[in-house]
Specification:
The chain is of the alpha+beta class and 114 residues long. The protein has one domain. The protein is 35% helix and 18% strand. Strands 1-2-3-4 form a 4-stranded antiparallel beta sheet. A hairpin with a 7-residue loop joins β3 and β4 (66-70). α1 (6-18) crosses α2.
Length: 114
């Protein structure tokens, strides 16, 4: 089961940061209310080169696959080649963090409580 509470996600994010991953400081754990008021946790990633919020969470409560969701934007984003390269590095960091959380979820043997 993919349910992970705030404490578990914070420990995983601390482990990820300790590995010296690029842009790991742009991620934080947020409280997310799940079914029945359970705190399922949610990871937010702040992009520096696009005013778009990104959240990372399990695809479904029963799945260990993690997905990233980018919030919709009202305005167009115009970037030059350097800006695109910087944004691509940020998106690569989001992808790496998503894969890390998925791997941690797949190997996790405990049971989280709200």
């Amino acid at each position: 089961m993919a349910f992970r509470n705030l404490k578990t996600l914070e420990s995983w994010l601390a482990e990820y940061r300790a590995q010296g991953k690029p842009l790991a400081g742009a991620a934080r754990v947020m409280v997310q209310d799940g079914e029945g008021g359970a705190n399922t946790g949610l990871v937010a990633f702040r992009l520096g080169h696009a005013p778009t919020g990104v959240t990372i969470q399990p695809a479904t409560p029963e799945d260990s696959t993690w997905v990233a969701t980018m919030e919709p934007r009202d305005e167009s984003l115009v970037l030059d080649a350097a800006g695109l390269l910087e944004l691509s590095a940020e998106l690569a960091a989001v992808s790496e963090l998503c894969a890390f959380l998925e791997a941690k979820s797949q190997e996790y043997q405990g049971t989280d409580v709200a």
